Amino acid sequence: MHLMTAIGKARLFDPGQGTEHRIGPDRFVTKGAASDRSEAFSVIEYEARPGVPGPPPHVHRTWEEAWYILEGKVAFVADGVTAEAGPGAYLLVPRGVPHTFEVRGRRPARWVGIFSPGRFVGLVEELGAILPLSGPPDGKSIQRVFAKYDTEFAR
Question: What predicted TM-score, i.e. pTM, was given to this entire model?
Answer without folding.
Answer: 0.85
